[in-house]
């Protein structure tokens, strides 16, 4: 991770009062230990280790030490400081991003291009953690594969702290001059507030939305803040040698076992992140023991010093190399030999990056020539952004291939009623590059967000004075059906209101997780809304969980909601659910061809002859059903491509392109129900 090189002695700056300036090799060794854990856990264990949390604490410690020395010399000059930080961080990072972008173009499957473009830009501009945080609360983003630049989230977080904390300190020092408080007391107070507030927020958000909390800046600031508070302590604490020995080894051991003791990927940050941060703090407090039995003796060894020096470059390189190895090998994990090759290559590239990029810029910084390094760092943004911009333009052009409803080359689901010899040969659509983007969006409609924690809110489209009002209520499978409903609504002047929450079908409770209070609250609110606005029709699900083994069912909660609406005089059209698979049919046919039998599933293994809702007993006449199974599967197979249109964008969601081909079928049923 970034080495601000703030603890090395130099004639240009005298020691700050109460803070001895000297090189502390144990810090470099701690960096080496942390990066070793990060790499080993990423490559071979498939988990995270807590090593990054140690880096966050070190970043707060080192940056605050630098600010203290600048203040002691006469004041903190923000512009030169920020130029220095940019010159240190950007060149190596942008070198890796440039190489990664080229490798993505050559090696990455097309359906992952848009995700890679988006995240490379976010990484170059230091907001990758926010990009991943946004995706973590986006239900549909679960189709995203692990990004080749996902590791830049921590660098983005550090960059945000490096740019923001000096400004906070400068404001604090201004306040100190205006009051009777000392500078150290003001900075300590600000850091304490940051630690207390951020840790509290981290514990709370981790408990209710851990994926979001993991990448959120606000949940991580306290880890930097602990480093800040450590930097404000006296340089030499009055501790006996034996306690320093104990602290040093306890800190190293605690950091080593963190990833073993805790499931860091699902429990962090929260209070669990106190473990690795306090472990790193213990090593810093132990400092130099002067004993040959101290942990600092090991951390100060030459191999760890060299490894610590290249830790930033090693972190930058190891992740994309690992991801491309897995892509090329078609695997989800790496074996021992493959891991050795990945790590060895990363080490070699890290040495080259450190030698020819980091060290020359560091020399310019020490000599005071930060302007050239700053310009070089910023100018390196240009080729990265130009490359990704051109790549995105090309990808968008490739994704622009589409068709209109009724195109004889792309009958899609209507191919059911056509002889095979009447369907012209054509390249399947949507294009592979836009497969994961081929989805009916509603968040560009007029949307309201009635309760916190919703994903799409209540979104409406249609004329101000519609002829009919249709509410589509349920989860993502109901959202996909809007693609078939929308053309009919536009044709007849209907208004559509989408009331959607991922993994939360319209029921009296929560069908996926009985304890999901947010889903229960959502359904209660949706029911009240429907009863209040009294639409002409509610479109929802008739069944769920259509999988191999004939697991399809109609939950009692579905039936109860139909009865509730029917009692209020509201018509219901319940649509039978589509199949779910344990693989992605589209990706299978991309690699093996649409006629490969392994990409299709026998219909009889998924769908019973009689849908389950026909066995629930007598229902009110306001409840009608629509079964599209014959348009999704033929009499024998559920295929990945029907009528030259790709059916599924992932393992269970139907593409918007395919649903649009079913619009005439859905329109006939809607008109029949609405005319009653």
Summarize the structure.
By secondary structure, the protein is an alpha/beta fold.
Structure overview:
By secondary structure, the chain is an alpha/beta fold. Helices cover 55% and strands 6% of the residues. The relative contact order is 0.10. Residues 5-21 have low confidence and may be disordered.
For the biggest sheet, the summary is: 7 strands, mixed
Strand order of the largest sheet: 1-2-4-3-5-6-8
Helical segment count:
25
Helix content: 40-55%
Class inferred from helices and paired strands: alpha/beta
Low-confidence stretches: 5-21
Beta percentage is 5-15%
Ends: how far apart? 67 Å
Mean pLDDT: 90
**Approximate shape:** elongated
* Total beta-strand segments: 11
Q: Radius of gyration from the CA trace?
A: 29 Å
Q: Any descriptors?
A:
676 residues; 7-stranded mixed sheet; two-stranded antiparallel ribbon; alpha/beta
Secondary-structure blueprint of this entry?
Blueprint: H1 25-45, H2 51-72, H3 78-107, H4 113-124, H5 128-136, H6 152-178, H7 183-208, H8 210-215, H9 221-231, H10 241-261, H11 264-267, H12 274-286, H13 295-299, H14 302-309, H15 311-329, H16 336-366, H17 370-379, H18 381-399, E1 446-448, E2 458-461, E3 468-474, H19 476-492, E4 494-500, H20 517-533, E5 537-541, H21 556-567, E6 571-575, H22 585-592, E7 601-602, E8 623-626, H23 629-632, E9 637-638, E10 641-642, E11 645-646, H24 656-661, H25 663-674
Parallel strand pairs: 3-4, 3-5, 5-6, 6-8
Antiparallel strand pairs: 1-2, 2-4, 7-9, 10-11
């Amino acid at each position: 991770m970034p080495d601000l090189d703030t603890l090395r002695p130099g004639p240009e700056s005298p020691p700050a009062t109460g803070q001895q300036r000297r090189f502390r090799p144990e810090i470099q060794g701690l960096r080496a230990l942390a990066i070793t854990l990060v790499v080993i856990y990423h490559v071979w264990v498939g988990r995270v280790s807590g090593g990054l949390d140690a880096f966050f604490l070190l970043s707060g410690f080192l940056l605050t030490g630098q600010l203290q020395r600048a203040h002691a010399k006469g004041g903190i000059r923000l512009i030169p400081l920020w130029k220095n930080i940019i010159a240190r961080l950007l060149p190596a990072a942008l070198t890796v991003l440039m190489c990664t972008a080229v490798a993505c173009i050559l090696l990455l499957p097309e359906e992952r291009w848009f995700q890679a473009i988006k995240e490379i830009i976010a990484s170059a501009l230091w907001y990758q953690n926010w990009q991943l945080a946004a995706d973590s609360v986006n239900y549909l983003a679960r189709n995203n594969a692990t990004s080749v630049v996902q590791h830049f989230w921590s660098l983005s977080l550090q960059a945000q702290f490096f740019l923001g904390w000096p400004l906070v300190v400068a404001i604090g020092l201004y306040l100190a001059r205006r009051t009777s408080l000392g500078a150290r007391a003001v900075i300590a107070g600000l850091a304490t507030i940051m630690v207390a507030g951020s840790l509290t927020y981290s514990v709370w958000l981790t408990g209710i939305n851990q994926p979001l909390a993991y990448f959120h800046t606000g949940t991580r600031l306290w880890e930097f803040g602990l480093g800040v508070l450590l930097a404000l302590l006296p340089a030499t604490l009055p501790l006996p040698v034996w306690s320093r020995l104990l602290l040093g080894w306890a800190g190293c051991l605690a950091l080593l076992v963190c990833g073993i003791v805790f499931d860091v990927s699902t429990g962090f940050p929260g209070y669990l992140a106190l473990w690795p941060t306090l472990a790193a703090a213990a090593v810093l407090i132990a400092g130099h023991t002067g004993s040959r039995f101290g942990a600092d003796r090991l951390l100060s060894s030459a191999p760890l010093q060299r490894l610590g020096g290249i830790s930033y470059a090693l972190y930058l390189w190891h992740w994309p190399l690992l991801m491309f190895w897995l892509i090329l090998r078609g695997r989800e994990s790496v074996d021992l030999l493959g891991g050795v090759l990945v790590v060895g290559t990363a080490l070699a590239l890290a040495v080259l990056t450190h030698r020819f990029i980091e060290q020359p810029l560091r020399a310019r910084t020490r000599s005071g020539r930060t302007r050239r390094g700053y310009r070089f760092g910023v100018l390196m943004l240009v080729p990265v952004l130009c490359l990704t911009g051109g790549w995105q333009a090309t990808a968008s052009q490739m994704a622009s291939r589409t068709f209109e409803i009724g195109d004889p080359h792309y009958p899609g689901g209507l191919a059911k009623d056509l002889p095979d010899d009447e369907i012209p040969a054509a390249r399947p659509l949507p294009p592979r590059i836009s497969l994961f983007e081929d989805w009916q969006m509603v968040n560009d409609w007029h949307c309201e967000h009635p309760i916190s924690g919703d994903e799409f809110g209540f979104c409406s489209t249609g004329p101000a004075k519609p002829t009919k009002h249709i509410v589509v209520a349920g989860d993502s499978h109901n959202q996909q059906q809007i693609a078939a409903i929308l053309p009919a609504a536009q044709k007849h002047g209907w208004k559509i209101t989408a009331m959607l929450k991922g993994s939360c079908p319209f029921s009296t409770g929560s069908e996926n997780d009985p304890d999901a209070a947010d889903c229960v609250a959502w359904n209660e609110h949706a029911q009240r809304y429907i009863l209040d606005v009294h639409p002409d029709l509610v479109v929802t699900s008739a069944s769920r969980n259509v999988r191999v083994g004939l697991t399809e069912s109609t939950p009692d909660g579905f039936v109860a909601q139909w009865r509730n609406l029917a009692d209020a005089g509201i018509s219901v059209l319940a649509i039978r659910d589509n199949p779910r698979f344990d693989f992605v049919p589209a990706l299978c046919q991309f690699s093996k061809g649409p006629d490969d039998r392994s990409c299709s599933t026998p219909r009889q293994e998924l769908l019973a002859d009689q849908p389950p809702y026909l066995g629930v007993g007598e229902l009110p006449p306001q409840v009608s059903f629509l079964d599209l199974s014959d348009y999704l599967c033929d009499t024998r197979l559920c295929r990945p491509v029907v009528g030259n249109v790709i059916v599924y964008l992932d393992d269970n969601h139907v593409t918007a392109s395919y649903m649009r081909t079913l619009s005439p079928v859905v329109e006939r049923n809607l008109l029949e129900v609405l005319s009653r």
